[in-house]
Structures are given as structure tokens and as C-alpha cells.
Amino acid sequence: MKALKICAAALRGVLVALCVALCAYNIYVLVQRYAFGNQMPTVFGFAGAEVVTGSMDDDSGDDDIEVGDFVITRAQDEYAVGDVVTFYHAQDDIYITHRVVAVNGTTYTIRGDYPANSASDIVPLENIVGKVVLVIGGAGGVLEFFRSPAGLLVVIAAGVLIWLISDIVSDLIDRRKEKDEESED
Q1: Which of 87, 106, 129, 147 could form a disulfide with 125 if both were Cys (CB 3.0 to 4.6 A apart)?
Q2: How far apart are the C-alpha atoms of 182 and 67, rounded to whole Å?
Q3: What is the pLDDT of residue 62?
């Protein structure tokens, strides 16, 4: 019984730490997006985004990035040919994830992998958010939801619910223990 209480307390501690971290992250992202207009804020050089087009899916199956995936990027001082990067396309006011096909000093020629995507963009280093370091297949919609105000409320509500369930279970264990002690007397 004592071990169960210790586990419950540890679970609560982890839950509180996780909820605080997620809330702090979400608040930071929301402030960056809505107060400063930065649609792809970075945290310690990392940023994330949902993939909404198939421009990086060449049907080879190797390193395809498909619609609905979630990409995590990391800022770097420079990029090499073959790196997949996310950059800000000022003309269309959007962020795009494509592959570096040429480097010319501090400018990069970038193009999507999709066979019909023959147009290239010339992008200065300061417009590149970062190199794609992780692709989470199919998780884009879910992770983007948790980065929204509604997702923040769901995280908080889930934390409160788990906390309450933990309290109820702990109370039931205490009552059972007391009942067992009373029956022994």
C-alpha cells in the first residue's frame, strides 16, 4: 500500500511538471504567434510545423515527408546540399519545407522533391528557420491541435482529471486500509 502511495505521488509530480512545461510552451508559442506575428517560433533553436502539402513526397518511400506529418527543425549556422529545411517565403507569407539543391555563399537554392515541383526558390540564410531533424509521421494535426488555445485547455483539463482520479484512488486505498485495520482489532 505504501509503495502504491509513493507511485501515486511520483505520478502526480510528473503530471504537474509535464502540464507546467506544456502550458509554458503553449503560452510562449501563442504570445509569439498572436502578439509578435511569428508564426513559427523557436524554442532553444527548435521549431515544429504540420506539413500541409505534398511537395516533399516523391513517392520513393525513402525520406518522404507527407501531408499530415509533423516536422521538427533545428536552426544551424549553415546548411548543405541535400538538407531538408523549413524557410519563410516572404512573397507568399508562408513557411515551406524543401530540400537545398545548391549553396551560393549565404543564399540557398531550394526545391521540393515532388516530381512536378520544378520551381526553385533562392532563399537567404536569415529566412531559413532550420534543418528538419525529425519527422513524426501522421502526427501533424494532433500536435498542431495541442499547440492551439483549445489544445492548451485540453491539456489542463486532462491534468486536472488525472489528478482527481489519483486522489479518488488514493482515498479508496486509505479507506480500505482503515477498514482492514478495524477488522483486525
Answers
A1: 106
A2: 62
A3: 66
